Amino acid sequence: RSGATNYSLMAGTTGTHTPSSGFTTSGNLATGFTSVKSGGTATVAATCSKVARDDGWASGEAQRIQLAISGAGGSDEIHNFRATPAIADVAEGEWFYAECKLKIVAAPVNINAIELYLLESHPSTNQTAIDGGYNSTASLQLPAVTVTRLLRTPPIRRQANSTALQCNLRTRMNTVPGTGGVTYDVVDCAVRK
């Protein structure tokens, strides 16, 4: 586990909303998480809410993220649902990975991919691991169906002098048409070793 107890429970509502040009984010966001868009020019709104888990677990909540594209932009713009576990929770030389249970509850439209992206920051050489990665050379998009997926990155071995960890559930959007979106629930998102 990442050392922080909330990542599996999605408890609380004091997460961080980081709006930017053309991007609004609002609602109840799980404590310890951030809703942020990485650059781009499209108009996108993220609406965050808490819903009951429906996966058989007795504790915790699900974090719902609804993304709505309402203005044209680039062919690959990214929204991050981000956790930043403490680097001290993973010792130098230990192997670690990210895992996330995702349920797409409203069929995606103009969504290239939803991927789990793990980043270890280091002064000279960052390391990354991805599951569900987007192939930018293909013109594929997620099918317009609802689905439940377990995403798990390949493991990374912690380097000496690493400065930070970051776990991102990244929604990669084709905003060229100016419309589209997706709604998904996250019931578990954590860095584990």
The stretches of 5 or more residues where confidence is low (pLDDT under 50) are 1-5
Oligomer: single chain
Summarize the helix and strand pattern as letters: EEEEEEEEEEEEE
Approximate helicity band: under 10%
Mean pLDDT across residues = 90
Largest sheet: 7 strands, mixed
Shape: globular
- Separation of the first and last Cα atoms: 6 Å
- Please provide the count of β strands: 13
Number of helices: 0
How would you describe the overall organization of this protein?
This protein has 193 residues and is mainly beta. Helix content is 0%, strand content 57%. The chain is built from no helices and 13 strands. It has strands at residues 14-18, 23-27, 29-38, 43-52, 61-71, 77-83, 95-109, 111-121, 127-131, 147-152, 156-157, 164-173, 180-192. The strands form 2 sheets. Strands 2, 4, 5, 7, 10, 11 and 13 form a 7-stranded mixed sheet that branches. A hairpin with an 8-residue loop joins β4 (43-52) and β5. The protein is globular, with a radius of gyration of 16 Å. It starts with 13 loop residues before the first strand and ends with a strand. The model is unreliable at 1-5 (pLDDT under 50).
